[in-house]
């Protein structure tokens, strides 16, 4: 199956800072999703992004399918951005990376 | 948008008993549903894939006789943890997909504690 690596595994930011999360995957994929898992465990879909760039408010994502990576940008981070960010490329099924655990300090 | 409802959100059971978790697609027909397990501070691991009207496909290492999956309708899949033991304590999450959906939608998860 697809191997997925996310970096960094842990990230601490001061409120207002920007950050970039990376997701590398080992094979061609049909689609890719980025999720935010909040402290209660709920997975919230952020982006469906098989290729190209999408933006939604302070978040944007870019997937370069030919080079097998995706990036999630968080600008002007807020404490509510804290949680775990997962990328999940889809081949036959979604495969989750190990996640980036983000803590935003006030 | 697509909504997946999962119940219960939290359950505590005694060792040796069985627990059923329900996953419902509220506004779409889910031809395929997936069950994941997540241990603390770890990623989601796929347990099984269920297709409406057929037997579930289990991932390697997942005991099909212990984790019974039923997908009897296009809107409901259930996961039953049989003869639960403390090591089965975990966060279980379902997701649902349909051929018309771009991606997958996740339920809110069930935190199972076996005492």
Largest sheet report of chain A: 5 strands, antiparallel
Return the average pLDDT of chain B rounded to an integer: 92
Which strand order do you get reading across the main beta sheet of chain A?
Answer: 1-3-8-7-6
Write down how many β-strands of chain A occur, each being a DSSP E stretch of 2 or more residues.
10
Number of strands of chain B: 11
What is the N-to-C succession of helices and strands of chain A?
EEEEEEEEEE
Please, could you describe this protein's structure?
The complex is a heterodimer of chains A (106) and B (115). Chain A has 106 residues and is mainly β. Chain A contains no helices and ten strands. In chain A, the strands form two sheets. Chain A has a five-stranded antiparallel beta sheet with strand order 1-3-8-7-6, with no helix packed on it. In chain A, strands 2-10-9-4-5 form a five-stranded mixed beta sheet, with no helix packed on it. In chain A, a hairpin with a 2-residue loop joins strand 6 (52-56) and strand 7. Chain B is built from no helices and eleven strands. Chain B has strands spanning 4-7, 10-13, 19-25, 32-38, 44-51, 57-58, 67-73, 76-81, 90-97, 105-106, 110-114. The mean pLDDT of chain B is 92.
Task: Summarize the topology.
The complex is a heterodimer of chains A (106) and B (115).
Chain A: E1 4-7, E2 10-14, E3 19-25, E4 31-37, E5 43-48, E6 52-56, E7 59-64, E8 69-74, E9 83-90, E10 100-105
Parallel strand pairs in A: 2-10
Antiparallel strand pairs in A: 1-3, 3-8, 4-5, 4-9, 6-7, 7-8, 9-10
Chain B: E1 4-7, E2 10-13, E3 19-25, E4 32-38, E5 44-51, E6 57-58, E7 67-73, E8 76-81, E9 90-97, E10 105-106, E11 110-114
Parallel strand pairs in B: 2-11
Antiparallel strand pairs in B: 1-3, 3-8, 4-5, 4-9, 5-6, 7-8, 9-10, 9-11
